Every structure is written in structure tokens, then in C-alpha cells.
Input
Amino acid sequence: MQENKKFKLVPSKKTRYLLPNILTLTGVCLGISSIKFSIDGNFTLAVTLILFAAILDALDGRIARLIKGTSEFGKELDSLTDFVSFGIAPVFILYFWELNNYGKLGWAITLIYSVCCVLRLARFNLTKIDEAENWKNNFFEGIPSPAGGLLILMPLIYEQTNLDLGVDARYLTPYLTLLIAILLVSKIPTLALKKISISPKTTVFLLLSIGIIVIALLFYTLETLLIFGIGYLISIPISIIIYKNQNKKNAEKISDENHEDIL
Output
């Protein structure tokens, strides 16, 4: 008697690949939906959806590695999702909010940012780091697309917070967008913090910090995003200094090892 075959979406041994890809697809849905809400004039919700898409982008890869569900398909899907959620959606939100007032120039800035984002993602996919320079995994080359997508929204975020600091945020929009576009394709090192060792003694403080950040995002979402955006921009010069110091130490270490081999 022939055994009945049950329909399976994926083989049972590969079900672990589903969760990361579901999170990735959810992120792209959030990114596209943010464009829809910006067209409707609901910019606060549009920005919030980009934030959720960035959180999912940070989680999907880590979850995939945790459950050993990484795959080439997931890697390519993640890059395509990043382009939609952080290369198209944020700048379209800005276009419907302010850049459309600049006419053809505003559309040109929109295109420039999107092109820089896709170039940045293509370069990231091709980047390979030698084992001898494993420390470089803690740095990105240029700013990552999720950070760029949130950074260009800072003028909009500032206006939505109703803060009055005497700054015309709308005036800064085209200049900030072009600056972030350049930083996306630049080779400026920025902190990635992929491989950071945490001692058991500091775990409690780390969890407390995460809890405070979550609470701040829940009750003061836009204000917290604005602070993080400013903090990230400030961290870029610090990242460059740390990168140069580690690069110098690594070069000295390699030089010493070569000298010992000669002796």
C-alpha cells in the first residue's frame, strides 16, 4: 500500500529558513506601506514604519545565524528588501513632504539618494574580509542603508516633534539627503558592533539600557529617534579614530610576526 504524501511548503529540515525570510518580507511590506501613508499625509506613521523595518532588518540576520537558517536566497532577499525599505521608501517620504517643492531638483535628489543606496548594497554584497583582518567585521564601509534611511528623515522627525530650537529643518532637507547619499557610498568606517564581547557583570546594565531605550521609543518615539540620529552622526568621527588605531595596531602586529619569521 502506497504511503500518502503530505503537502509541505518546504522540506522539514529547512523550516528554519522560513522565520528570517518572513521577517525580511515583513520589513519590505512596512517600507512600501510607509510610502502609502506619506502620500496620505500621515508622516508620523510613515516614519514609525521605517523604524519597525529597521528593527526587523537588525533582527532577521541575527536570528538566521542563531537558528542556523542562513542561506544565499535570504542574503539576496535581505539586500532587495533594504533597497526598498531604506533606499526608496524614506526618500519618497521626504519627496512627498518637502522635496517636491524643489521641482526637478527635488526629484533629482530623490534619484541620487536611491542610486547611492543601491550602489552601497551592491558593494556590501561583494565585500569579503580576510581572516587576518577579522577585526574589520566591527566596521561598515560607509554608513549602512537602514541608518541612512532614518538619518535623511531627521528634518521630518524634528518637525513632527514640535520642538522649537530655532532651526528651519525643511531648509536642511535637500542638503542632508545629499550628504547621507555621499556617506552611503563613501569608504568612511562606521561602527557595526557585530562582534562585541560582554562580560557577565555588565549584562544587567546592558539589559537595563535596552529596557530604557524600548520605553523611550514607546512613549517618545520621534524624540528618541532624533537623539539617536544626532548621536550616530557624532559617532562617525569617533569610528574613524577607532578604525585608524586598530588598523595601526594590526599593521604593527603583522610587521612583528614577519620580523620573527625572518629571524
